C-alpha cells in the first residue's frame, strides 16, 4: 500500500474514532436539595474531558435545579466533582469495585472504559455487540471534592496542561525524545487542544497529523517507486504528503521504538504501561493478542480461542486479536495520542 | 431475549484468581535519581529507593517534603528532562518505560 492510500485510510479511521461518543446521564448528589429537574443527558465525544462539559452541566442542570440560596452556596465550581453512579442490583451487572470519583484529566473514553470493565462481558460479544449501550451514569457533587483521589486540580487550564504532557510523553515513548512536539509551531500545538475544545477534527489534526505516525508498512526500500508523488530520492518517512502546502513528514508507526499504550484492569488493579515494540524480534508487527499474552498471561492463556477469560476494549468496541498494535495506536488512539485498552472479564453464564 | 442473557454472568474463578495476582502491589524497589533544573535547590542526597507500586503522586509529595516546598508553591517534575508524567502513573511503569542505567531520572524545577 502506498503512503498516500495509508494516509487516507488512516484518516478515515481516525475520524471514525473521533466521531464516537458516549451517552452520559448526570444527576445531582442526594445531599443537594434539587427541584423538579434532576437529570441531564449529554451525548459526549469520547475524546473530551469533564471540565469541558461543566459549563453545559451548570446551565442545563444546576442553574435549573437549585433555588437561589443553594445556587449562591454552590456557585464555586472548583468545589464540584463527579462520581460514577455504578448502580446496584443484578440489572447493573457490576462485578467489580466502581471507579468512584472521576478524574478531571481523564478523557470521557477512559471514564467510560472503567465503567465498562467493572462489568463482565458476554462470550462472543465481539461478533454481536450490544445494540443500545446504556448511558454512563454520573453523580454531580457540589462540595467537598476528594482532592487526593482526583489527582489533578479542577479547571480547564490544568486539564490542558495534563493533555499537553500526555502528548509529549507519547512522543517520548515513540521516539525516545519529544522533538516532534517541541518542534511544532505554537499554533499547531495549540490546535491539538483547541480541536478538542471546539469539537473540530481538522483543527486537532493540525497537531495529530504531525505527531502521530501513520501505519505505513515497512520496509521502505521496495516502496519508493510506488509513492504517489513519484519522488524517489527520499524514503517514504521523509516524503511530503499530497493534500496541503505545509504537509507534515510522513513517518511510519512501524518504525517507532515503542507505542504509547496503556492497559487498564478492573477491580482497582494498577494500570499497565510497558514498552511495546512495533515489530517483534522476528520482524513481524506485534499483534494485540501477542501483546496481551506476553503481559497478561493469566487472563490471556494460550488457547485456541483468543478471548476465553477476558476481552480487550478500546473506544467502546472489542478489539480483534490479530489487529496490529502499531495500527491500533495510529488509528484508534485518543486525542492525546495514547491508545487506552481496557480488559473486561468474560462472564460465566 | 433468552433467560440466559438475563442471568448476570459470574466472574469465572480463573479470571478472579488472575485479577488477584495482578492486584498485588509491586513491592520491588526502583532507584529514583532527582536532578534539579535551573535555580531549583540541589539535594545533598538525591538518590532514593521507591516502591514500584507507588503512584508518581507519592514521589511528588516526597520531593516537596525533601525540598521544603510550601503548600502554595509550585514544583514541576519531569522524566528524563522531557515530559511531566501524570500523578496516577506508577513508579514501576515509569521505570519500565523510561528507566536509564538502572535509574528513573526525575528532574525538578
Automatic annotation (TrEMBL), chain A:
Main location: membrane
Record PANTHER family: AUTOPHAGY PROTEIN 5
Entry similarity comment: Belongs to the ATG5 family.
Binding partners and assembly: Conjugated with ATG12.
Localization, UniProt: Preautophagosomal structure membrane
Name of protein: Autophagy protein 5
Ranges of Low complexity composition bias in the record: 221-233
InterPro entries from the UniProt entry: Atg5 (IPR007239), ATG5_HBR (IPR048940), Atg5_HR (IPR042526), ATG5_UblA (IPR048939), Atg5_UblA_dom_sf (IPR042527), ATG5_UblB (IPR048318)
Lineage: Eukaryota, Fungi, Dikarya, Basidiomycota, Agaricomycotina
Pfam families found in the cross-reference section: ATG5_HBR (PF20637), ATG5_UblA (PF20638), ATG5_UblB (PF04106)
Domain Autophagy protein ATG5 UblA, residue spans: 18-109
Gene giving rise to this polypeptide: ATG5
From TrEMBL, chain B:
Membrane topology designation: Peripheral membrane protein
Record-stated family: Belongs to the ATG12 family.
Keyword Metal-binding: no
Protein name (record): Ubiquitin-like protein ATG12
Localization in the cell: Preautophagosomal structure membrane
Keyword Protein transport annotated: yes
Coiled coil: none
The encoding gene: atg12
InterPro entries (alphabetical): Atg12, Ubiquitin-like_domsf
Pfam families: APG12
